[in-house]
Amino acid sequence: MAASHAIFWPLVAQIFLVFLVYALMNRRRLAAVRAGEASVKDFVVPNVEPAASATVARNLINQFELPVLFYVVVLSLYVTGGAGTLAVFIAWGFVISRYAHAYVHVTANKVMLRRNLFLAGVALCMLLWLVLVVHLALMP
Questions:
Q1: How far does the signal peptide extend, from start to end residue (predicted)?
Q2: Going by fewer Cβ within 10 Å, which terminus of the chain is more open, N or C?
Q3: Helix 51-62 vs helix 85-106: crossing angle, to nearest 10
């Protein structure tokens, strides 16, 4: 497989993470209702939500913040022909950092570890943007 097409596998993996977090949020919300910790009406406007599902809901919001910049840069690299081996490697690093961040967020929720994983993702996303900028600057 050409590196240019390989750039789509980290993108697919990142999207899969979003679906995993959706599924986990649904599972935790249903569990909270079944356990009597919340009622269905509590989720209409979730001002007060059990911590277990609120944490996942917050992580889901995270999946539509920084990853949006990742989606744009991946597609831009592909369209401009800049999705080489280095870009694919960095993209996988970003996705791994996002999976690790999500795991920590929805389990132990250790803020400093979560922060460091988030910052690693930011740095990798910025690096992908730098790869794009260099690629564009060197295009004939």
A1: none
A2: C
A3: 160
Alpha-carbon separation of residue 47 from 22, 64, 99 (angstroms): 19, 20, 27
The CATH code of the domain that includes 91 is 1.20.120.550
pLDDT tens column, 87-110: 999 999 999 999 999 999 999 999
Domain that holds residue 68: 3-138
Residue 135: which residues within 8 A CB-CB, separation 6 or more? Answer: 77, 80, 81, 82
For the chain, the domain total comes to 1
- Residue 30 CB neighbours (<10 A): 13
pLDDT in tens, 66-91: 999 999 999 999 999 999 999 999 99
Burial pattern 41-66, b for ≥16 Cβ within 10 A else e, equals ebeeeeeebbebbbbbbebbebbeeb
